[in-house]
Prior knowledge:
single chain, 382 residues, alpha/beta, Multidrug-efflux Transporter Regulator, Chain: A, Domain 2, Beta-Lactamase, six-stranded antiparallel beta sheet, 12 helices, 41% helix, disordered C terminus
Amino acid sequence: MDKDILTTAEAAKILGVSVRTAQLLIEGGSITSWKTPGGHRRVYRRDVLAQITGPAQTAIAASARVIVIARPERMADYEAAVGKVKYCVVERYTDVYAALLAIGSRLPAAVVIEAEPSDAARLAVLESLRSDPALGGTQILVVGGSAADVGMTRFIDGLPALPEAVETAIRGAVEPPAPFETPPSFPFPANEGQRLVALERSGLVDTPPEDAFDRLTWLAARSLDAPVALLTLLTPTRQWFKSRYGLDMADTPRGWAFCNYTILQKDIMVAENLATDERFVENPAVSGELGFRFYAGCPVVDPDGFTLGSLCVIDTRPRTLDDTQKQILASLAALASDEIKLRVTDRQLRRAVEHGTSRGSAAAAPARSDNKRDAEHRQGSA
């Protein structure tokens, strides 16, 4: 019989996440736990299984993606409204069927849709979304409607109220607290707890170098004439380099990371002269032996829209980037994000196949036993 009381490691194995991710969920209260006299966390199996099958699944499948379905002539207005929420990724669709495909492929935190009584297709999509049990953790935000809120569907009078509604939807999932016992010296996003769970879920930290990422940092350095290019991942305590060009060290303390500011926004962050920028003038990477003077970074995100780190270039002299160079950096960061998304999707598919195989084996075992008993019974009858 399976144990009713589990360790953190055993819970992580059932959930299919790293031990660190399980720790974040347990310590954040997403899974009820208690401490043994020796100070070790323990959880009930039923509470762990509820994370997979119950409403609390949002703690694991939390998202920062927002799907916007609107008419082409109104899309810019929606983009401007939702864009005020700094830590979400907006996907825009004028074709409702393409939007449904995007929603079905990976559940978003929120779906924003116009209430257009004259658009039968859009009304049908809205009704479909509202009745889909798989979207139990997704907020449906209907702009322009006047009906009463029902379940996860909220009706909004107009665009001015949209940013607050989107932010509430994203943070409405069970959110582990930021793992800082005391306030750190560096800034961090409002969804830092979810971001760190996503980082652990990616499985990228402390993995060996890979050509797919090394090619991107090499291209960034050569294309932008920079002596240093990095693909960074920000853990609670470290800035770890998944790929690095022109720098020997494998990581730095989190407090040194210029990327702390990059992950607060959606676009490129440029510091033309680090030595005169009040945010960085006392940074050891600026005032110390490294002597960095220029930084430009662009966020790198996972399939759920969480920013894991950045692709950045660094120089030892003050400088700037022109519009073409900024576009090059943004394009390379997008390629890094795409590579991460492919890896996460591949890992999930492998896990699903393994889970299906194990379930099939378990179901086959009783069948084999029954067949054996039937054969013995027939022999006895003969």
